[in-house]
Design a protein that fits this description.
single chain; 118 residues; mainly alpha; 5 helices; 63% helix; globular
Length: 118
């Protein structure tokens, strides 16, 4: 048992990645250039977390909380992946440079499109 705990604690990288993803999602949620329809995803996950209806009831020790955690992590990942790549890049760069939150300026507009000929 001690070996498992020691091996889990020796891998703080996964916890750092989770915190970095949460920080990015928080910044993207505040970003005005991210559509309101995308911002519904984390809101729905939060509502699921506080709702009395669960996929796995909470009276099963451990398992009831794991489904809540899984829903939150999946919603976080889905929200970040669906956000515009320009906004993701802008805020990842801001996080690595430790800049405080500022929304993207109007010159940072990026239109994602695909051009097809014929």
């Amino acid at each position: 048992m001690a070996i498992r705990i020691a091996s889990w604690l020796s891998r703080p990288l996964s916890l750092r990645l989770l915190l970095a993803q949460a920080r990015l999602a928080t910044r993207l949620f505040r970003e005005p250039k991210v559509s309101v329809s995308l911002k519904v995803v984390p809101i729905l996950a939060g509502l699921y977390l506080i709702s009395p209806i669960d996929l796995v009831p909470d009276f099963f020790p451990g398992f009831g909380q794991l489904d809540d955690l899984g829903i939150i992590l999946a919603a976080l990942e889905l929200f970040v992946r669906l956000c515009p790549s320009g906004a993701q890049a802008f805020h990842r760069d801001a996080i690595t440079q430790r800049r405080p939150y500022t929304p993207m300026s109007s010159t940072d507009d990026i239109i994602e499109a695909e051009w097809r000929h014929g």
